[in-house]
Structure formats: structure tokens, C-alpha cells
Specification:
By secondary structure, this protein is of the alpha+beta class. The protein is built from 8 helices and 26 strands. A hairpin with a 3-residue loop joins strand 8 and strand 9. The longest helix has 18 residues.
Length: 431
């Protein structure tokens, strides 16, 4: 596919030095003519897409990216659509004006105020950060056109210099559905669990922290998270994600990742969620022993469990239901006892009762073992002694478990399987 690149910029520099005659001899056309042709070609390409373009917009090279859809009319109107935190995560469309002008080269300008787009170039910071007073989000609304074709247009912010990619949107794609696909991918990748990602290429490994911020902190194996990382903004796509700039290892680079085989893959690079057992333990272990965990692993009957476990769990549910209570079991670290516990949460109407049974947790490189201490708080011991099924469930989990993930990328649901009894297994979900 033919790409038109702004090579005429070279000619413009020659004009600046007064070498007009030499420049015409080299290129066959004057810089002015080539600039005019490039401008007209860009305009035609923009207007030729019947369903518009996808813009991967980065306000500046250090910030997360945002997706906009744009349909350019030949009469100077452009219809824009967006859905992001500055639009209260609501889909919005707005019509404004556009033009390609010549300003030391072709520049795509959105030259009338558009409330869903110009917010990034407004000097008033929408987050009310005093450090950004007078600067705002430091975005652009004018873009130098670097390259165009009928399928892709590459731009660069005129003021802040961030690179922006525009790709032709498929003709049959509904705009609102496109943003729904982005929401679904973002929820899958980052909405259910904050596990880190792990980037692998051949024998080289990196940890990808802070994915929920849409700015990865990519740290080499053995490196310090706070001193050795590279901050790499990215944008979610319907197929995976796209880094602001290519990340290179040796002589290999990667920028676009696609979800395939339950991983993010591209060009020999592979991204997964790392070791399920490690994450299981880390997710509920606070830095200070006296502090309770902010998270827990909930026993998930709706996911699946072995018949042996389900028979016991159903007895627990029935015994609680007999007194008008629902029940939830979870594994948790309780700082007050400085103990891992089986947390029992029951509800009757709007009243919630919680109890704890204390366990010793032992972690190895292959498994996690639970051993009931025979102690707990008053509500926990009441459930254990007086309600059917709890003693038998404690006996079932009083064992050594392997931990695995059906989804190796997102570790929000993990399978716990007894090493001593293959008929004892169930799933836990992260919360």
C-alpha cells in the first residue's frame, strides 16, 4: 500500500538556505508544489474513509493514551466520539471543524473548540492539580502530518511532540460498540485483579508493574521497581494493547500486543500473569504483620468445585439458610491475630456477621499448606461447632494445595487442588 511521506520537508530546508534551483533539479518539483500536493493528499485520505478513523491519542509522551473516533467531511466538519474518564466514562459525540494547513509543513488542525477533545489542550487542568495550573494536560489539537496512506496516518503533536497514530475504521463497525470492545478488553486485563504482568523474550524477563494506570513500569528481572524501570504509556485496543513507543530487547522490538492463546503476544514477545502460587500468597500478605490484608480469596461455588467439596459446601449453605442466612467463605490474613484465617461471612437481611478460624499457612515453591490451629473468634467457633458442614470443610482444607490458573494472563480466579487427595479441589476468586 502506497505511503506518502513528508519528504518535502527536506526541500523546505533547502529553500531556507536559498538553494531553490538545486532543490528543483533534485526533486523535479518545487517545495511549494510538493507541499500543496501533500496537503491535498492528506485531506483526500482523511475524507475518503466512509466510517472514519481510529485515533490513538497521547496528550504527551509521558501520559496514558486515549481513543477517539473521527469522521472527516469534505465540507470541513469532523464528527468526533470518545469515552474516557474526562467524559465521565460516557460515550459522547460532537461535531466541530478541521483543516489541513501549511505551516512549515502540513498540519492537521482542529480549529474550532470541541469539548470532548480540546480538554487535553486546555490550560485549566480538569483534575485540579495545582502543579499543572496553566499547563493543563499538555495535549495538542494541531498535529504535523508525517505520513499518510489510505489505511494509516502518522502525526506528531505540534507543541508537545507526542506521536499519534490514526487507522482507518472498518466500514461496518458501530462506533458505540467499538468503545464497548475497548471497555471489555480493559476490564479483562485490569478490572478484576491487580496482578503484575511478566514480559518474556527468549531468556530475558521483565516485570510490568502498574498496568491499571495505563503507564507500565517495565523493570528487568532482578531490578529495583523504583530505580530501574522504564515508564511506557500504552493504550488498550480491541485486540490487546499498543505501547506509545516500541520496547526493545536486544535487536528485537515490540509495540503492539494481541491477545492470543490466553497471553499477550507479538514478535517473539510473550506476556502472562506470572506464577499463580506466588500471586495467591502475595495478594493477601500485608507488608506489616500487624495489619490485616486488604484483599481475600473467596471460595467460588459458582465457578466449579469437586463433588467431594461441593457436598460439604452445600451442607454449609443449607445450615445457614435454615436460619435465614447466606454464607461466604474466604481465605484472609487477619492482622489482629497475626494469622491466616478462614473468614466466614454471613448475612441476614441487612445484618452481617463475620467470624474467623485461625490457620497456620506454610508456603513452599510448589504449594501452600493450611493447618487449622483449633482456635478462632467467638462467631467463628460458633459456626464451627453449631452449624453443619463447617468442621468437615475445615478438615478438607487442612491440607497442602497446588495453585493454578485457567487464565495465565489474568489471575483473578485460581484453582486450589489438594496434593494429598485429588478429589478435593475448588476455585477461589480475588477480591
Amino acid at each position: 500500500m502506497k505511503k506518502i511521506i513528508g519528504a518535502f520537508l527536506i526541500a523546505l530546508s533547502l529553500v531556507a538556505t536559498g538553494c531553490l534551483h538545486e532543490e528543483e533539479d533534485i526533486f523535479g518539483k518545487s517545495a511549494a508544489i510538493r507541499a500543496k500536493e501533500f496537503k491535498e493528499g492528506t485531506e483526500a485520505a482523511l475524507a475518503a474513509a466512509p466510517n472514519g478513523w481510529v485515533m490513538h491519542y497521547f496528550p504527551n509522551p509521558t501520559t496514558e493514551g486515549y481513543t477517539y473516533l473521527m469522521k472527516f467531511g469534505t465540507g470541513g466538519n469532523v464528527t468526533m466520539a470518545g469515552k474516557n474518564k474526562y467524559l465521565k466514562n460516557q460515550y459522547k459525540e460532537e461535531i466541530s471543524l478541521w483543516e489541513v494547513i501549511l505551516d512549515n509543513g502540513p498540519v492537521l488542525t482542529f480549529n474550532s473548540y470541541n469539548t470532548i477533545f480540546h480538554i487535553f489542550a486546555d490550560p485549566i487542568d480538569p483534575d485540579n492539580n495545582p502543579d499543572l495550573e496553566g499547563k493543563g494536560l499538555e495535549g495538542d489539537y494541531e498535529f504535523i502530518v508525517l505520513e499518510y496512506s489510505d489505511s494509516q496516518i502518522k502525526l506528531k503533536g505540534k507543541k508537545h511532540g507526542a506521536y499519534v497514530l490514526m487507522s482507518r475504521l472498518a466500514d461496518g463497525q458501530n462506533w458505540e460498540d467499538y468503545f464497548k470492545s475497548l471497555d471489555n478488553m480493559n476490564t479483562f486485563l485490569f478490572g478484576n485483579t491487580p496482578n503484575n504482568f511478566y514480559l518474556r523474550v527468549e531468556d530475558t524477563y521483565y516485570t510490568m508493574y502498574d498496568g491499571t494506570t495505563h503507564i507500565f513500569n517495565i523493570v528487568p528481572e532482578g531490578g529495583n521497581r523504583y530505580a530501574d524501570g522504564d515508564k511506557v504509556p500504552f493504550i488498550v485496543t480491541p485486540d490487546g494493547l499498543r505501547l506509545y513507543s516500541a520496547f526493545s530487547v536486544g535487536g528485537t522490538s515490540v509495540q503492539d500486543f494481541k491477545l492470543a492463546d490466553k497471553k499477550l503476544i507479538s514478535n517473539g514477545f510473550s506476556v502472562d500473569g506470572g506464577n499463580a502460587l506466588d500471586f495467591y500468597n502475595q495478594a493477601v500478605t500485608p507488608e506489616e504483620p500487624s495489619r490485616s490484608s486488604a484483599n481475600r480469596w473467596i471460595v467460588e461455588p459458582a465457578k466449579d468445585m469437586s463433588p467431594k467439596v461441593k457436598a460439604v459446601y452445600d451442607r454449609i449453605v443449607a445450615s445457614c439458610s435454615a436460619v435465614g442466612r447466606t454464607v461466604q467463605l474466604s481465605f484472609y490474613y487477619y492482622g489482629k491475630n497475626q494469622s491466616d484465617v478462614l473468614r466466614i461471612t454471613t448475612k441476614r437481611s441487612t445484618a452481617t456477621t463475620e467470624g474467623y478460624l485461625n490457620f497456620e499457612k506454610t508456603v513452599s515453591s510448589e504449594s501452600v499448606a493450611y493447618s487449622y490451629k483449633g482456635t478462632g473468634d467467638q462467631p467463628g467457633l460458633m459456626f464451627y461447632k453449631d452449624f453443619d458442614g463447617f468442621k468437615d470443610f475445615v478438615e478438607l482444607v487442612n491440607t497442602d494445595f497446588t495453585v493454578s490458573a485457567d487464565e495465565p494472563l489474568v489471575l483473578s480466579s485460581l484453582k486450589m487442588q489438594s496434593k494429598n487427595d485429588p478429589d478435593v479441589w475448588f476455585y477461589v476468586s480475588y477480591k
